[in-house]
Design goal:
Blueprint (H helix, E strand, L loop, with lengths): L2 E4 L2 E4 L6 H7 L23 E4 L6 E8 L4 E8 L2 E2 L10 E3 L3 H15 L16 H10 L16 E2 L4 E3 L9 H10 L4 E4 L6 E4 L10 H7 L5 E3 L12 E6 L8 E7 L4 E7 L12 H4 L13 E3 L6 E3 L1 H13 L6 E6 L4 H14 L3 E5 L3 H4 L16 H12 L6 H9 L5 E5 L18 E6 L4 H4 L3 E4 L8 E4 L5 E4 L12 H12 L9 H12 L3 H8 L3
Parallel strand pairs: 1-7, 18-19, 18-20, 20-21, 21-22
Antiparallel strand pairs: 1-2, 3-6, 3-7, 4-5, 8-9, 9-12, 10-11, 13-14, 14-15, 16-17, 16-22, 23-24
Helix pairs in contact: 2-3, 4-5, 7-13, 8-10, 8-13
């Protein structure tokens, strides 16, 4: 692979790479505002100017103050080029930290801040604002402008999700390019010129497509803010872990931002993964963080309606084991969940296998029941994060793919299923579709949230949500992706796999004794591996 030198360091590059992209691949940041690896090149902020020192040097005439002559005299200075637009070439030598470059960056910063309001204490971008970062790094001088700054519209409602502050805007045009290039909807544009520039909506339109939060995400300053996150948290109090979106089968990689002081998730942001989601997430996916706190089940309940009785968590586990011990495995149905981690589904499938259960089903959301629509950008037609993982677990352990909830209801009505052990809250969103389960005496549901399955349960056992555990989702492409625990679960509540392990030990089921997520994953991998005979047969010549 060819290389060039950046500040004396060898930087490999691919054909078509620009200087800034090649540096970005190596984890080196050249200051910039308008450039984004997932968008076209605008080259309008001029913050990424660098000095190409190899080859024929380009110079531009200037007037420089001569202290001895006490006048300006003709001179030259290096002509700097934008790193975002200049293609990388073999053996090129580039300087991005020299005095000429630093002076240019300071001047660009000063120009951008001439009319920018110093409202950092009330700006949601404070703490992750490139203007703040680069001011400290490249300028750090007082503003020389003494006239009244240009005033522009503030708090403009662009749509259901986004608020715009034109005074903070530096006209990088990232938001326009997201709408144009990612979504294909030219709903944003720029009007006026010079320091009168501002971003505007197309006449008669709102910013209301399915990727509006991406316009806020790519904004390098505080001009665009999310109405959901606005004024809710300061980013320096937030910690971040790696997550996987639960919105659909694409499995977009995310950053889960949470406040450890309160054990609360505040937002999701896309995590770069060019094989899965590139640099993006859809609005619905970014809002799935609400599942970690809204409509939670945190108390075990035994019974239905007025006869329902609350249980302590340890009592719920004992009751779970006692119920299972008294049930006929031949008429017991086990329901896996396309919304829960593969680890949860795996241990539940092991319990089903150990008990000799013959009826296994999969609870999944159906797109038409929840109004979900896929697209050609990121949104998969399947609105479940782990249908592939749950199905693979059933096939590996039980030898066949699970049926769906319609099959379950049909078997209940036919009298073949008389009790149910289910995982999760989703599935059966169509009104009345699970009514047949209300007639069963034993419908045991392990769930983190309220939903159709818990609403028909005779025993509800709380378990940890995806934000409170380590786990794995398998996306529609068959890629297993791990996510990390962000916040602690409510006191006494464990992931579903741990709750099932505790119940299995009380039942005396052998081989189901895991203490850590890694042990479950190892068992999952072993179960998925081909038998020695099959492997030998597969490798033998035809």
């Amino acid at each position: 692979m060819p290389t060039f030198k950046l500040n004396g360091q060898e930087i490999p590059f691919e054909p078509g790479d620009t200087i800034i992209r090649a540096a970005w691949r190596q984890g080196i940041e050249i200051p910039h505002y308008c450039w984004h690896p997932g968008l076209s090149i605008a080259a309008n902020c001029r913050m990424c100017l660098v000095h190409v020192t190899s080859g024929r040097q380009m110079a531009m005439p200037v007037l420089r103050w001569d202290e001895k002559k006490k006048e300006y005299v003709p001179d030259t200075k290096p002509k700097l080029v934008p790193a975002c637009q200049t293609g990388a070439q073999a053996d090129m030598e580039v300087d991005s930290v020299g005095p000429e470059v630093q002076q240019a960056q300071a001047h660009v910063q000063e120009f951008l801040l001439l009319n920018h309001p110093v409202d950092c204490p009330i700006c949601d971008q404070a703490g992750e604002c490139k203007l703040q970062d680069y001011y400290e790094e490249h300028q750090h001088t007082l503003k020389r402008k003494r006239t009244e700054p240009v005033h522009k519209p503030k708090g403009v409602r662009f749509g259901p999700t986004i608020v715009y502050d034109a005074e903070r805007c530096i006209m990088c045009t990232r938001c326009i390019r997201v709408c144009d290039e990612l979504v294909g909807d030219h709903v944003l544009d720029m009007r006026e010129r010079g320091n009168r520039n501002e971003i505007v909506l197309a006449p008669g339109r709102e910013l209301d497509h399915r990727y509006t939060l991406m316009t806020e995400h790519v904004c390098p300053v505080g001009a665009l803010t999310s109405r959901d996150f606005r004024f809710k948290a300061r980013v320096w109090f937030l910690k971040t872990v790696d997550g996987i979106c639960t919105g659909c089968a694409t499995g977009c990689n995310s950053h889960v931002d949470f406040d450890p002081r309160y054990g609360k998730v505040y937002r999701l942001r896309p995590r770069d993964n060019e094989q899965v989601n590139g640099f993006w997430m859809c609005d619905d996916g970014m809002m799935t963080y609400q599942e970690a706190h809204e409509h939670r089940v945190v108390t075990a309940v035994d019974g239905r309606g007025e006869d329902a009785e609350k249980l302590l968590q340890e009592e719920a586990t004992e009751e779970l084991a006692a119920r299972l011990k008294g049930l006929d495995a031949g008429s017991l149905a086990v329901v896996l969940s396309a919304h829960h981690a593969s680890e949860d589904n795996f241990v539940l499938a092991e319990v089903a296998k150990a008990l000799g259960v013959k009826h296994v089903y999969l609870a999944a959301r159906e797109a038409e029941d929840i109004g979900w629509e896929g697209d050609d950008i990121l949104r998969h037609a399947d609105p479940n994060p782990n249908r592939a993982g749950a199905t693979a677990v059933a096939e590996a352990l039980l030898g066949e793919a699970p049926g769906d909830l319609e099959d379950l209801v049909g078997d209940v009505l036919a009298g073949q299923v008389k009790s149910v052990l289910a995982l999760g809250a989703i599935g059966g969103e169509k009104e009345g579709s699970l009514d047949a389960l209300k007639n069963l005496a034993d419908v045991i549901v392990l769930t983190a949230n309220e939903g159709p399955l818990p609403s028909v349960a005779s025993l509800t056992v709380p378990v940890a949500s995806w934000a409170e555990m380590f786990g794995t989702f398998r996306n529609a492409k068959g890629l297993d992706q791990h996510f990390v625990r962000a916040i602690p679960s409510p006191e006494g509540i464990e992931p579903a796999w741990k709750t099932l392990v505790a119940a299995a030990q009380e039942l005396g089921l052998e081989g189901i004794a895991y203490a850590r997520t890694g042990e479950v994953r190892t068992a999952m991998n072993d179960a998925a591996a081909p038998a020695a005979g099959d492997e030998a047969q597969a490798s033998a010549p035809a």
